[in-house]
Here is the input.
Amino acid sequence: MKRKYLSMAIGGILLAPAAFVQAQEQKAVPAGTQATQLDEVTVTARRRSESIQDVPVAVSAFGEEQIKDLQASTVEGLQGAVPNMNIAQGRGSANSVNVFIRGIGQPDALQTFDPGVGMYVDDVYYSRINGALFSLFDIQQLEVLRGPQGTLYGKNSTGGAIKLTTKNPFDNEGGAVEVTAGDYGRLEGRFYVSGKLSDTVAASIAGAKITNDGYVKDAVTGKHYNDDDTEALRLKLAFKPTDNFSAVLSLDTTRQDAALTLGRPMAPLLQTSLAPAGVIVLQPGETGEWNRRAQTSFTDGQGQYLKHSGASLAMDWDINEQWMLKSISSYRKLKTQSYIDIDASEYELGDVLVALDQDQRSQEFQLHYDNGSNVHATFGAYYMKENVPSYQEAYADDLFSFLGAKVPFLRTIRDDLSTTSTAAFAHLNWEFVPTWTVAAGVRWTKDKKDYERSTSTFWGAPFASLNGTVAFDARASWTAVTPSVSLQKEFSDDLMGYVSANRGFKSGGFNGRANTVYDTQNAKFDPEYVWTYELGLKGSSADRRFRGSAAAFYSNYSDFQARVSQDVGTFPVLNAAKLNIKGIELEGSALLGEATTLSAQLGWMDAKYDKFEDFRLDPSYPGFDPNVSHDHVPFSPDWTARVALQHVFSLGDNGNLTFGGDVSYRGDTWLSVDNRAVLSQDAYTLVGAYGVWDSPQMAWQIRAGVRNLTDKQYKTEGQEFASVGNIQTAYYGLPRNWYMSVRYNF
Here is the structure.
């Protein structure tokens, strides 16, 4: 089966004579119109608008219609559509997202660890993975940049960046209303309204209400979990008082109130008997197919709540024909209160409450120069101030016993992380002779972090004398220089090649799981760095019916920040590893005839540790665990592939009827740093299909689709806390699900 689907992907790619592309294409326009070439795709990967074919960066781009054809409701729907990217809902959380690109991401979900892939909405950086599971309800374009983006995007983009651009009121007059219904109680409503208030002012408002009952159920109580209940609203005001000045003010808010997100215990859950000494098996680990039934120790009302709001102001000044100044100011506030049943059972072994009250302020200036011919330069400065106070509780009344009786256990944590980040950058693009262009840039970044933490432990009888508080505060700063350089050659009007080298920097920090004196003495960890070297080719046919790209890369990745499990309640963070990662990525689209579009993506990656310094693997260490290995890099499957086919039938005066579908493949994937065997996912294939009817003038649209058509069961994430009750919990992707939507455009 593996060879079969790889052959399908490769065969689809070879149908396009050009090397491959980053974007799926627009569908047919009103009835009677026939497509003769693929639409032009413009991206802002280098902080300015350029054709996707001219950018020496591996970037995938999706417009509004392509996002619909992916059947994506949130950014998680990009899974499978971008080579060598792994994106999934965060472990045990309804509101966070875990992203790895080319083997680089954030292995620990706690807020004191920084992401390895930058998330941006309208050029505003979102510093936490909490609140980053964006609902896609008024998106103009979505771009995925692969590889380090340290010069133009800064820290924490070592793996790459995901950019969402929302609709501009001046460019999208009119509106739409859409209602979607499906199984598992899915019911969604979205709207967008935009228009000019005068010749110089335009406004838009967009909103979404997204609900479903969830696909996990308690067989005893009948309660549903892994559901969603989200409301989102965005208001934009655009101003253009003169020809050389424009500004956009954006206000947004999102509220989510969901039940627990439950996984499945994959290993026997254990209780430690303090006297007599021993281990008691509470529940065996599950094997075989999961019936999507789960139990929890939490009660009704203990769910997952989020409120995420913000404001941004983007201003552009055309100083003269050569110079343009841009300012991006933003403020964001994130509040979450999430109960997470880490052990995914009716026992209290690893049950936690994590509550954040984060805010961030940022300011960026960009000065662009364009001589109208062969030189473009960007100069910039960036500042961000972030505060992340949090309160946490850990419940473990079933973790310990004494003389056959349970020993109550509670841990409370109060911490506060403050980060100040400043940066200056410059980037120059110079066509020094016809058809040859060199681009070079450099960014200087300084990160300063202050961290305060207090951990209080409360034991029940007869161990109340062990109660106590461990507290510490620390501060540190790091500076980094992240250069980039590329050399680009236009072989013809339709074919371009490039070579590039880019450095990325992921900030250091402090261990947000430092619960013991030992942990506090070793709480600081250093930054990660990566150098990536890339060779790429982008081309299209002369008639613009075929377009594509190919990229080969090699990454040297050092000081990998690994959170490991040591002893009960002890979780050190080690700058443990050095990796080399190499891979190949192919993307392409072809317009076959006048109504059929074929697109394909193929990624191959070989990620390996050059070294992994882990004291737990020393046989003389008292906590030596033979089940731990570092043979595989987590979230780095060797193969990712996808083939999508779409055909439009013209119904004449009755509109258009479109049918489409895709097949995606993902190789073996490991879901934990420690390579626990039960937290791995064998290679699997997913199938999706949809049909769309568009009225003659595109006023009405009816869409129906099914995701995971074969009802494949597959793991997407894992919790690994083996030193606490042997917790090893897996989270699963969506089962087969169908939907139907009706949309009216006006």
Residues 1-32 have pLDDT under 50 and may be disordered. The chain has one domain: 5-745. Helices lie at 2-14, 64-69, 517-521. Residues 205 and 235 are 5 Å apart (CA to CA).
